[in-house]
Amino acid sequence: MARTIIELAEYQTKSPQLEEEFLYEETKQEEDKTLEKLQLTQEDKKLVNFLKKQGILAIRELRHGLEISSTSHIGVVQFSNFTVKVLPKFSLNTKNLPKLIAYAFDLDDIIIPKSEITFQAEEKQLIDILITFFVRKCQQLLRQGLVKSYVTYQDDVKFLRGKLLLKQQIRHVIRKKPEFACEFDELEYNNLENQILLFCLKRSYHYTESDSLRKEIRRLIHQFSGLIDDIEITFDDFDKINYKRLNQHYKKIHDLCKLIISATGIGDFYQERQHTVSSFFVDMNKIFEKFVTRLFREFYPESHTVESQKGKKVWQTDSGGGSHIRTDILLTNETGQTKIIDTKYKRKLSREDPYQIGFYIHEYKQREGFAILPEYSDSTTQSMTSQVQEITIFVRTINIDETIDMLYSDDKQSKNQLRELVCSLVPP
Predict the structure, then answer these.
(1) Do 214 and 363 have their domain in common?
(2) pTM for the whole thing?
(3) Domain ranges, residue 332
(4) How do residues 162-176 score in pLDDT, each as one tens digit?
(5) Which CATH number characterizes residue 398's domain?
């Protein structure tokens, strides 16, 4: 029996019957009678709660059928009797998705044949785009040489090496043990930078259904396994790495690893359920933010510095703790004046968004800020001003497809057009 497949675009609600109120005010609504017959099992309901907490997907049980609302995440999730797919239909031509990912993650040096990265509606295609980029980056790293780090060991050795551990050595003398108790450093590949890659390779092997990709991944795992310990990686491990000159080239591939691990996290929710293995979601918010950030770094006037995810402490507690805000993009000119940019991958700002952006503007002691959204067919450029604080938020939109066409065009005039485009979003 064929599974029922429900397809949505980002920020879209599908319901058996349309109502006046919806979960997300920026969604588009559509009636879909297929949803009248769908029901959730008890196991499905746990997965629904997980997806809702993660802000990925919302499913509401109605008297007759289900109502499904998507957010900025695209991907697929399989329930007991049906599959939900969220595709980037409204703001992005699916053929441009690989180029968007490549540009956002600064993967210009990775060349992949078009036949390998054509996005289709099949469940595995999106994750295979990410895995293909990751595999090519791993192969490139191996050709360049993996980074080595000093690892500290304490061991009993026949010859004096490194630092002698006096307490242990005294015990050896008393026991007439003919060895030196030493602490020494070994320069080797078994470091966190490479352990992250091995973990993500094994995760990728589990998720791809491409025979050719599996073959390449299996070869890479074999090359890594003899040198590197296989350990479980969490998102906290990425924060432990201090990128310096010797390991700076790992930053791009680690960003890809985070995206792949995040995208495939749903499969961990029910490890015993075979059909959830192919479930994955990618947050287009993160990709769009990286895309816009790189545009400003490359095409905004050089008199400004462009910082991404700039942190600033704004709250102080009695116990000495506090909390921070992080602006998506912060522009600073030569005199120290700043401009705040917040990227939002959605059709329009929600009710809460102006309060968030307004708080950023207030904390940076500015009078204006900018919200950049992808351009939709019904998008409008506008501004909103706080009547008391006199803070203004300028809402700007960017046509992703047209921008990508200019980025990958050989026409020199396109670069000038891109500079004009970026400066029109936020005037210098």
Answers:
(1) no
(2) 0.81
(3) 300-425
(4) 888 989 988 988 888
(5) 3.40.1350
